[in-house]
Design brief:
It contains three helices and no strands. The chain is mainly α. α1 runs parallel beside α3 and α2 packs antiparallel against α3. The radius of gyration is 19 Å and the shape is elongated. The N terminus is likely disordered.
């Protein structure tokens, strides 16, 4: 492939292939920013698609982290979920 035909990689393309955030909070922050950009309607179609794909990755990461916490709580509560009561 010649340099002339190579498509430059945008920041959005790089974000879509970058490593996922390490924490739930970072993933949620990135997801919220991404949703705001997608909802603005100011993104070209290709960027919207890559943004949607990145959003799906972030959403799955958040779900996995929440499930891991729920699983830990089940272990701590001897396998039974108890209703949360604020103190």
């Amino acid at each position: 492939m010649s340099k002339a035909s190579a498509k430059p990689i945008s920041a959005d393309d790089a974000a879509a292939t970058s490593v996922l955030p390490a924490t739930y909070e970072d993933a949620m922050r990135e997801l919220e920013q991404l949703v705001a950009r997608l909802e603005s309607g100011d993104m070209p179609l290709e960027q919207m698609l890559s943004g949607y794909q990145r959003g799906a990755q972030l959403l799955q990461l958040c779900r996995d982290k929440l499930q891991a916490v729920e699983d830990q709580i089940k272990v701590l509560d001897a396998g039974t979920l108890k209703p949360w009561k604020p103190q």
